[in-house]
């Protein structure tokens, strides 16, 4: 969800690399990769005087490190020496000359005695200077001795990451997924992380309610012919069931209602508001079965619309036209979870011993069954999606034809233990500020995909590289917490429960979360996703097709990346992000990018947004003042003070919280700045409100959404202004 690079307001000359550029993007395996740095503030910043502020050169960045500084005794001040007579040697010039006058020849003993005193004093004086210098450079001070982080530090850590090590780790992990007890995988991860030197690696277990497939697979039967099909399109038979092994069982929707429903199939396409409005004009949809395509909007949101409309069941599929030509999912089965997150039996609170459990075996009244594209083609009597000229024809049920089917959905609900593996590297200067790095591991009773092995191998490779540096005495400024989550396929249960368990601590102390959930889905382009305050790093590009969890074979990952060079590149890119957020004196979060994102979300012909635009303009003014008055000086080592840096980072850490809403539509992000997809540059809750108003005469929902956006923008503007006031009051107090 957060990643970061250099501050976006640090302008770069034409012959310099952009702040978001990384040497790992030059990898030949990522020829189509693009980390577009969206920056349309250059003109405004030049007018504001920011043109004088540029990236520090490599030479300047090396200044301040003890290994590059020659010891200059003349520059050391008396205050750096120990207190006592050795400081007095510098402060009183007559003190030495008093004992260096020529002694009478008749009193050679006194002369020798004075000479010994002088020699001892001189030696102790020089020794004291060295002690003072050592104490001065090693004890903490209000102003950091080093202005910037050594640019070679990150590369020194990341260069030890090797593709061969990641491949070996991946292969060791995939051999474990067949275990019915996910504790075996958790133990393997814990043992490996501990052996690498990660601190206090432990299990965090929760007893949660899982919705599992029934031993008998679900079926779809055509009423006209009586033909029975499994979800993958194969005829119902014992032989087909044996050939498909467990993949057939895992084609299901976790937490769906269960039972049998015989009804007409109505093609609702993607289930958008316009689709439902059109269909309800010509048909009665009560207790009918919707034929629904995955994509365009969150699945949970579309299911909520279908449930409100009165449908009784849903046959869910992926249209081949929505996938690349090289992908053929015709017979592929998949799993989806209808759980918005966490243990359904303990909503909003952790599943610890003694917690009250609600009876919630299903989270919807709909019978939901994922099916393959080949089964859809049989239901609608359609030929292959792609024609001879390779043009794709979307799957559609003809309006003048009626299809009646009987769908049978069977699942089992059980209490099971979900295990998280958690370890950390304690920060040096800000140990109470946490950067959380998360991946997930395979959970027994879930789909047999292999993405978890990729993510676990990648996070382990970074831990190995990081700990090799930590063992030599270095530590990041902030604490890095590494987590391998369990129960992810059922609705991110492990991570949700851990978050609810440590809610108060995390709300106060977490700086960022870096997810390595699904690191490899192809070999053509890179699609990272980040919060708006870190847009200088990525281009946001989520896809709701990822809600489908396919039972990918283990060899599929190695087919996409046989040399594991892509894995190595992703590990280094992610590692560079983690190190910068964990170790940069000033957090690489950008206030102006948030203001720009707000204004971009209000562009175009949108009704009733004049008040929002006015408020957005004030937000931008406050963000620009905050950026110029506080963040620019903080990035200048000469003006940097530890107490001001801490205050600044606290503000940066929480600045997006103004855009969190208490309750978002099903499947939507609570952070309203997050887009539904890369094509929609509007506030997600306004998009939903406009969709909601289309079939209704009332616009009350739209007015509520507009008010929520207005309050969020106003809250952010007040937040930046309050931050400026605090800094000014501190300065006034010192003056």
TrEMBL record:
The chain crosses the membrane at residues 114-135. Residues 1-21 are annotated as: Disordered. Coiled coil: none annotated. It comes from the Eukaryota. Keywords: Membrane, Transmembrane, Transmembrane helix. Belongs to the peptidase M28 family. M28B subfamily. This is N-acetylated alpha-linked acidic dipeptidase like 2. The gene is NAALADL2.
